[in-house]
Amino acid sequence: MSKSPLSEQKTISINTEKSGFYEGFNRVVAVIPKLLIIILIAWVGFSPSSAGQVLLELQNWSTQTFGAWYIYVTAFYTLVCLGLCIWPRTAYVKLGRPDETPEFSTFSWLSMIFGAGIGIGMLTYSTAEPITHFANSPDTIRGLSDGLDINNVRNAYKWAMLHYGLTAWACFGVVGLSLGYLSYNRQLPLTIRSGLEPLFGQTMSGTIGNVVDIVAILATIVGLGVTIGFGVSQFASGLFNITGASWLIDNGGKPTLMAQLFGLTLIVCASCLSALSGLKRGIKWLSNINMSLSIFLIVFFILFGATLFALQTFFFTIWDYLVALPMMSITVWKNSGSETSIALQDWQGAWTIFYWAWWIAFAPFVGLFFARVSRGRTIREYVLGAMIIPVLICLVWFSFIGATAIDMELSGLAQGAIVNADISAQLFKTINLILTPELAVGLSILIVTLLVTFLVTSADSGILIINTLASGGSQNQKQAKHIIIWGLLFSMLIGVLLTAGGMDALRSVMIIGALPFSVVMALMAISLIKSLISDTSSIKE
Prior knowledge:
single chain; mainly alpha; Amino acid/polyamine transporter I; about 75% helix; disordered N terminus
């Protein structure tokens, strides 16, 4: 019998400061992202109009040039995760020692995974996504169904679940699986560069490794920026639904800049406080609250929403989504000169490509976080908990909350009040039609509370992960000053981008910033496969 592969692995050596302000950090990885963010803040802050235009042009170029890459590479991530889960040779490999037990209970583990991964998106898009595609989707563009008609409901859900289904969670899953295995089974640092060590070896200890971690930090920042941007917009809409204060919403029904900046300040301050308390205290506590409030909200819609219609939608969507997934995952629409082809390309760029870039930008933070909380789980258990179960939870949200909104539009009760509302307000418009004004205010308070805890969980986890990357994978609690610095940079970056072009500016920066890390993720997936084949072969022998 051969030796355990663990005893033969190479290690990555990452230089960290022994003293001073950056004690415990890799100075290059810690400083360069800050400088780049400060330069971006200064550029956008001093020239918001021109910066917004340039960012939009770069976004359009990136989407048109690399749209096909985003489509194909995310399909590859999905195949890797599902394949490793199904393949008996790898399915029962544990992230950690064979005798290691999970650090967190299953409930806390799933709560942290869902909260960090996609909780904010559920609150914003559980209503917005289905009802938007109910009005317009590739099927309506091609004349296969009619917008706002009963015959387009199943199509709407098919496209909605594409963006929140297996592919989305595979983006997070492949990073977490790679880092979890290579860190806990090969004793490499818990940082992104470790995911490439099986391909490039000791090279990842130096400059190239620093570049990889810097790219990951920048992707995390822009991904979190978009997430928090959507969150503070919905926060403002929720406060308006509760208080009716006119300064929160403009004449067009959109959150005002002042309201967004107010929400941003509140969220970042709370996030810094939570991050200072660490993973096992603040983040775990908030995640458990998130899950409990989420269950309450879902139960409410099950009891008082369009329950029968939602159940039908739930089961039809499972079938429709799984049948259509292979073709949806690899279809790339290009401009061939016809009006239909232009509309399809525009739709794919605005929705699918945007989502894939969002999930990829979010992946270094979420994936590393998944790895950090999943030690002691098998690969099959990890894929079930980090992909399959979250997809089912997303489907429940879409079915019971989104279907209720669609049913109200179909019945004429809403009369366009939901479908024509701003995305940030559609959930609140729905509950206003279900409940009396007093009860609607009460439920709005619960939703705003849930939103705040989701936002804080995402932001504080992000800050901790950035510090982990900047310190060469160290999981020790960092000094308060570094948490506060990142909190300030986050708030300033999001604030100036909102000022320059609102969510469009945030989207532009994110789509541009996600591209380099998508390449890193593809290499991480290949590295993981190589490592597992090598290690399981050695053990078998």
